[in-house]
Amino acid sequence: MKGWEFTTTHVPLKLIEKADPVIAPGNVVIDIKASGLCHSDVGALEDEGWLELITFRPLIFGHEFAGVISEVGEGVTDFKVGDRVGVCPVGKDGTSPGYHRDGGYATKAMVPAADLVRIPENVTYAQAAAGTDAGMTSYHAMFVRGGAKAGMKVGVIGVGGLGQMAARAAVVAGCEVYACDLSAAARELALEVGCKEVFESVLDLAAVAPELIVDYAGFGTTTAQAIEAVGLGGRVVQVGMGRLEATINTRSLILKQVDLVGSMGGTVDDIAAVYALFASGDLDPLITEIAFEDIGEGLDRLARGEVKGRLVAVI
Predict the structure, then answer these.
(1) The pLDDT value given to residue 305
(2) Could you give the domains of the chain?
(3) pLDDT tens for residues 75-93?
(4) Is the pTM of this model over 0.85?
(5) Which residues of the chain have pLDDT under 70?
(6) HEC-encoded secondary structure of the chain
(7) What CA–CA distances, in Å, run from 16 to 58, 74, 87, 164, 225?
(8) Interval 248-305: pLDDT, tens
């Protein structure tokens, strides 16, 4: 099999060949068909703070992928060879691909059967891959941690791979959605997915005083500005990890009685909910496909802010 190997920060990924995974009980081997490129992988290549999260090195990078089952291990009864599946990047055993074991920037991967989600027939592999992390994480932050529901005023910071899905899902759910992004192309995308109004600055959200703001960028200043912009008694959900630290105004946090909560990942149920939105046509995220061989270059594009929507490598 081939895979893009991570060794440490400030060292580009290297395309290598290694032995195919050997099937283990309770697991399946997947022939990977699509892998999404995530900004957290860019962070891990640039910031030493990520190393404490990546406990198994060197390893094949990538935590957002989908494919078809080619081998089934002993004890697996719910899936069979030939099933199309996405892989939850938050493993039920506490491990995650691309962090604690080989991940999805590869042609094959072995994963626990408990972490699989069936892909509906009319959902593509590229959509399914993006739905595992970008979809799951954005959905969980918006609806589970954020509690978004019909009629709420919701602010979305960052209309990239995650933010575009969250904004659209919130629109479908009946929320009044506002978005902000430094990129003009991203602001245009926000309008396309149904946002009522878009802004360049997070602080401009204060004019509408959202009950909920979800920060899918997480660049420190965005976190601090979300606290300033959210309505009295509102909630700010932090999910983006563009930076690993932020300085906030605790006076605003206290006097406005803001709930500041973190959100990480999600569950197979969140992925299934996203896949259902894909299958119905209510959610059709912007995806740019690249070749598997171009993953290294794709991460460079992502680091430079040149990607609109979600970048997905297909095999």
Answers:
(1) 85
(2) 2-131+265-314 (3.90.180.10), 147-262 (3.40.50.720)
(3) 999 999 999 999 999 999 9
(4) yes
(5) none
(6) CEEEEECCCCCCCEEEECCCCCCCCCEEEEEEEEEEECHHHHHHHHCHHHHHCCCCCCEECCCCEEEEEEEECCCCCCCCCCCEEEECCCCCCCCCECCCECCCCECEEEEEHHHEEECCCCCCHHHHHHHHHHHHHHHHHHHHHCCCCCCCEEEEECCCCCHHHHHHHHHHCCCEEEEECCCHHHHHHHHHCCCCEEECCHHHHHHCCCCEEEECCCCCHHHHHHHHHCCCCCEEEECCCCCCCCCCCHHHHHHCCCEEEECCCCCHHHHHHHHHHHHHCCCCCCEEEEEHHHHHHHHHHHHCCCCCCEEEEEC
(7) 11, 29, 22, 33, 42
(8) 999 999 999 999 999 999 999 999 999 999 999 999 988 999 999 999 999 999 999 8
Type of residue at 281:
G
Q: How many residues in total does the chain contain?
A: 315
The token pair that represents 23 in the structure block: 């099937």
